[in-house]
Amino acid sequence: MKVTSLLLLIMVACGGCSATRESRPPTKMHVENLLRQLLVDEFTPGREIVVSYVEIPPNTRMDRHWHLGEEFQYYLEGDVTIEQDGRPTIVGTPGTVGHVPYKQMHTAVTGLKGGRLIVFRVHAEGEPVRYL
Q1: What is the percent of the chain where pLDDT is above 90?
Q2: DSSP character string of 89-116
Q3: Of 7, 26, 34, 91, whose CB neighbour count within 10 A is largest?
C-alpha cells in the first residue's frame, strides 16, 4: 500500500505528465528521467531513486533486460505487458501498478495502443539503469 501511495504522490508531483502529452499512441520509444536522487545513507546506503516517464510505440517488444534494483510501474495509457522469466506476466492498464523484483529478467511488450507509464526504481547508486 505504501508503494502505491508513493507512486500516486509522484504522479501528482509530475503535474500530470500524461496531460502534457498527446493521447495518440507514441510514435517512437521515449524515456525522460524526471528524478534521480540519492537516498540517505543512514536509511538505505548505496541506493538511489530513479523516476522516469516512458513512452513505448504500438506493437513493440523491448530487449530483455534486468535492473540492479526494484522496479515499479504506474500505467498511464495504452496496453503494456511485462513478461518476466519464471514469474506471472504483468498486464498494465491505465491506473494499475506493476512490480518487477530485483535482478528479475523481463521485457515490455505493447499492443495496438502502445503505452505510457511512470517507472519508479530503487536502484544501486551509480550503476547503469538496465542490463541486457
Answers
A1: 79
A2: EEEE-TT-EEEE-TT--EEEEEEEEEEE
A3: 26
CATH topology of domain 2-124: Jelly Rolls (2.60.120)
**Distance between CA 58 and CA 79 in Å, rounded?**
9
Of 25, 28, 37, 46, give the one whose Cα is nearest residue 120. 37
Phi and psi, residue 23, nearest 5°: -90, 5
Spatial neighbors of 51 by CB under 8 A, at least 6 apart, are 10, 33, 34, 35, 36, 118, 119, 120, 121
What pLDDT, in 10s, does the model give residues 38-95?
Answer: 999 999 999 999 999 999 999 999 999 999 999 999 999 999 999 999 999 999 999 9
All 3 cell numbers of residue 59? 506493437
Segment 31-35 mean pLDDT: 96
E-assigned strand segments in 1-132: 30-38, 47-56, 69-84, 87-92, 97-100, 106-124
Give Cβ neighbours of residue 61 (< 8 Å, ≥ 6 apart): 107, 108, 109
Question: Where in the chain are the domains?
Answer: 2-124
Quote the pTM value.
Answer: 0.81
